[in-house]
Every structure is written in C-alpha cells, then in structure tokens.
Amino acid sequence: MNREIGMEITIGELFHAVFKRWVILLIAAVLCAAAGGAFGYVRSSSQAGNQEELTQISAQEQSWYDENLEMTKEYSPLANETLVNLRREWIRLGHIYMDHPLMKLNPGECEWENISILFEDKTGHHIGTVQNWIEAADEATLFGTATDTLSQYKSDLIDIIDQEGETLIRLIGAEGWDTGSAAEYLKSVLTEQSQKTGVPISTITIAHKKGHLTKIDEFRVNTSNMMNLVQGSITNTNSIVASFPAPIPPSSTGESGISYKSVIKYAVVGFVLGLIIGFCIVLFRLLRRGCLISKRQVESTFDLELLGDMADGSDSVAVLNANLDVMVGSDGRVMLLGIGEGVDAASITSGWNSDSHREYISGRDLIDDPETIDALQDTEGIVLGIRIGETRVADINRLLFRAGKLGKQVLGWISV
C-alpha cells in the first residue's frame, strides 16, 4: 500500500485540533493572567510607594523602563538569529523531503538485498565490527554510477540489524542503485575483512527481497513531523517578538496609590500570553507524538474512506451500515479496532449491535492478542476507530502493515 504523508493540513484544522484541548489553554491563560495581575499590582504599589511629588517621575518606573530597554537590546538580536537558524533548518529538511532517495520510494513496493552473516557460536555481538568492515568498502564500487547521488545517504540506505552471533545487512534499492552487484561486492569485502581481523564467519548468504518496508513509512512520518515542528517554532518566535515591543518611556503622573488599570492591563496581557504558551504546549505535544490533526489527513496519508462519524453526534451506525452493505453485504461480520487512548472498541460495538442488523465484534491488538487474531478469521474485514488529535500515525501504520500480513482488508475508518 502506498501511504504517503498527507501535508494538506489547513490552519483551521490545526487550530481545531489544538482547541480541543481547551482545558490546557484555559489553565495556562488563567495562571498567566494571575501572574500578570500580581506583577501589575506589585509594580503599581512600588511606583506609589516611591512617588515623592506629583510632578516627579517614579524612580521605580524609570528603573523598569531602563531594565526593559536593556532587555530589548538583548532579545531582539537573539530572536533574529534564532529565526535565521530555524529557517535554515526548515530549508535543510525541505531538501531532504524533496531529494532523499527514501522519500521517492513506494513503501509497499520496495526491493532490497539481505546479507546474512552467521558468526561462530559465543562470539558476542558484532555490529561495531560489521560497521567498520562496511566503511572499508570503496563507495564508487559500492554505488556504481549513482555514487555522487547516493553516497551521502549511505547510512540510511544500508541497515545493520545485529543479534547474538548473527548480523543482517539490508541494502535498500534506491533509484539508480544496482543492489545485487553491491551485495556481491560487499560480501567479498566482508569476507576479506573477516580474514584480516581474525573474526571468523561461519556462513554469509545473500537473498533478494520484495514487499513493504516499515522503515520507509517511519522515515516519511519523522521528516514531515520535523518540518511541521520547525515551522511551528518559526511562528512561535515571531509571536514572541511581537508580544514584547520596545518599552515606552515613563512620564510624570499626578496619580497616587495603586493603579487598578495597570493591574487589569497586565492581567489581560498575561491571559493572552497564557493562551499563546498553552497553544505552543499542545501543538508541540501533538507534533511530538505524531498525532493525526484532521480527517483529511487520514484520507491523504492512508487512502482510507470515512465510513461514519460518531464525533459529530450524527446517526453514525446507520451511515456505517449503509456503507458496509455495499462493501461486504448485509450479513458480513466486521471487526472494530480502536486506535488511541480512551477508544473503547468493546463498548462501541456493544451499542452498535443493539441497534444494527449486522454483527460487530471488537478487537484489541493484531500483534499481541491471540483472541483478536483468532476472531479475525470469521470477519469480512476491519474498521478502524480513530480519534482525531489523539491517534498516532505510527500506530495506524503498524496496524495496516499487520492487517496486510494477516490477509484482512481494512475497509475504512470511523471517527470516535
């Protein structure tokens, strides 16, 4: 299956996903508002206590102005330098996204060569030794005519998987690279290095493989998430600069005592900054965990059809049944697999079975749960229960790959 990363996430969808965690935003805003109000109260009290005459400028206010002016001179160049570095990093990731050979591969239709090295018994792990042996190989011979293009990605194209007494080297077939010839050459290099270093090899074999490579999916997801994270950091840095304008020089005042206008002003400023901070915290957690942001992202990333929507309160069972009637018939049993924390597939299917002519069964996990795997034999397919903003892209990748191995079709998904 071709599951390229969906990049068509709008600003509205991003804000919607973040504001679903409105409790975190509210807590951050209230705390910052309280801190801002306290700051305004302390500042106003200090100015009132130090005011000697109505026409004199407050010494405390002047001190705050001088301090803020000095800080402005410091953080403005720092912010500009940070923006430059972030933009350079975003451009670097963009080149990887456009030019890296792994980004040009179809994850479901990959070809690679496996070099299996069996060492003598009780000789320990050899990943460091094998890495040194591979470094001894001539890159021009290894990559052939594609040396200029592929040599810089050597560590990504050659995987080393080490176990006790056995090491597997995987050469991923990128465009323009004859991995068969490369594997034969690397085999001769490894044999030669084994004799030189005195680390005996029992057997070394080469096998050509075709199929799905999870590494390609993970590489695409990680690259996309890093680009989103850097882009968000650029936006946040711009917001911080805008939130701290140059200070206004103090002026003479005829007021005495605490200024409640100042308290309210700083409380409002704190509330706004709290919303920004809360927004950044939630956004960072979403991107760091690799969560889905929108329904459209599910469709563009995994090519899965939305069969029903429980999240909007509509009659999702009737819509789901109508879709499945067309796809697998009216009597076909279907398994619901929930992906994400708090998605209780058992309680959902219990409600469906009470209102539906079709029998739904719930599953827990296709890898570690034998009951789910056994129950899957008597079903027509799988429906995924996905919660936008909580379900991780990597978890869906893992489940789709496992379902393909078990020979069961994922019919679509429902928003819960």
Question: How would you describe this structure in keywords?
Answer:
416 residues; alpha/beta; disordered N terminus
Your description of this structure?
With 416 residues, the protein is of the alpha/beta class. It contains 15 helices and nine strands. It has helices at residues 11-19, 22-50, 59-99, 127-135, 139-143, 147-150, 154-157, 179-197, 214-243, 260-289, 295-302, 316-328, 345-354, 370-375, 393-406; strands at residues 110-119, 158-163, 166-172, 201-211, 306-309, 334-339, 360-363, 381-386, 410-415. Strands 5-9-8-6-7 form a five-stranded parallel beta sheet, sandwiched between helices. Strands 2-3-1-4 form a four-stranded antiparallel beta sheet. A hairpin with a 2-residue loop joins strand 2 (158-163) and strand 3 (166-172). Helix 2 (22-50) runs antiparallel to helix 10 (260-289). The longest helix is centred in the N-terminal third of the chain and has 41 residues, at 59-99. It is flat, with a radius of gyration of 30 Å. Mean pLDDT is 79; it is low at 1-8 and 51-55.
Listing every helix as H and every strand as E from the N terminus to the C terminus, the arrangement reads: HHHEHHHHEEHEHHHEHEHEHEHE
Distance between the termini: 24 Å
Strand order of the largest sheet: 5-9-8-6-7
Summing up helix and strand content along with how strands pair, one would put the structural category as alpha/beta
What's the average pLDDT? Answer: 79
Unreliable stretches, pLDDT < 50, 5 or more residues? 1-8, 51-55
Shape: flat
